[in-house]
Amino acid sequence: MAWTGRLNLALAAALASGVAAGARADTTVTVATVNNNDMIVMQRLSSEFERDNPGVHVRWVTLEENVLRQRLTVDISTNSGQFDVLTIGLFEAPMWGQSGWLVPFSNPPAGYDMDDVLKSVRDGLSYGGQQYALPFYAESQMTFYRKDLFDKAGLSMPEQPTWLQVGEFAKKLHDPEHGIYGMCLRGKPGWGENTGQIGPVVNSYGGRWFDMDWRPQLLTEPWKKGVGLYVDLLRQYGPPGASSNGYNETLALFTNGNCAMWVDATVAASTLSDAKQNKAAGKVAYANPPYGTVDKGNHYLWSWALAVPKSSKVQADAKKFVYWATSKRYIDLVAKTEGVTAVPPGTRTSTYENPEYLRAAPFAKLPLENIKTADMDHPTVEPVPYRGISFVAIPEFQGIGTRVGQEVAAAISGQKTVDAALASAQASVEQAMRKGGYLKN
Fold this sequence. Notes:
Blueprint: H1 3-25, E1 27-34, H2 37-52, E2 56-63, H3 65-77, E3 85-88, H4 92-98, H5 119-124, E4 126-127, E5 130-131, E6 134-139, E7 141-146, H6 147-152, H7 163-173, H8 194-203, H9 221-237, H10 247-255, E8 261-265, H11 268-272, E9 284-287, E10 302-307, H12 315-325, H13 328-338, H14 355-360, H15 365-373, H16 397-412, H17 418-435
Parallel strand pairs: 1-2, 1-3
Antiparallel strand pairs: 3-10, 4-5, 6-10, 7-8, 7-9
């Protein structure tokens, strides 16, 4: 072959390679996620993923929790394909997987170590033996309290408090003139906001959402006791505007030094232990979540997990990102850049076998134990036809839970009595269950 012919072939090959590289550079993975601290860290560190995967770019859509859930439900049910990676949880993953809306994670890359992922979390994100989402972090509930304020008041928090006890503590510690509120809890309406926190309270008073015939139980004594207690705590000892406070707002109150106690997600522990983020860091102690009359179902299991919808046109790259963000390697990256206590908790056995993590995170064993003991299949004292502790695993629950949360928020703000709020909630739930075909009369 002549020299010029070889040159032309070389030029053609180079041009072809350039075209391919240019096409590859246009690959964009759009991630829809919640505006929690751990996800903000993931967004910041995603440049590491882009560096290791030339030509793949990550675009972020970060939304408030209620808005995220609404957007993702509409997107996946209409097959619109706006997002390539979805931040969902134990509520959505099995149902959406069963509906054929999600891509299964069938062949993890070498070194991912799926067996290292906590079994209760892994199973909760599966359906029919297929893994439809991978956990970014997992959580249960715990009680956070200001040890310095307890010591000053001569109070001692039991390892396993009751709601009656924490109510008495709240009364003694409530000092609004000095910016200290006895109890901080979520009041913001939403099935994953205030309703998700109230469900375990009701469970711990012997309540349930539905009986075995799917009849709503919101007018029963356990609901009146559980919701009544929750509302009274916030009205008497909570911060102003509590009916508008979700997870992030309440976290901000605690880190600003305004809460004597807070019962919420265990994932907050890492933020509260960080002196850069919490004014009261070093003064925070931890206990189990309270219970009413029984400790059955008084703490939930939840995971913010990553999934890939069937509607994604870049499924291979989207799955590659999910594997990266939920891997041991990512956990090591967070430990290196943010500090070991900032690693996403509740997902991997290896995290809780890491001596460095256990030394730096004195709270670590309590969340792990509560994650392991949260029984999604038997959440209440009385038998129920559903799965779930802080939610009911039926598609209608998104609407039902949000409606109930709105009624409870109205009671917290003083617009309604607890009895009136529950009566209205009961009527709404009955209507939804009839429309869904669960109730025949």
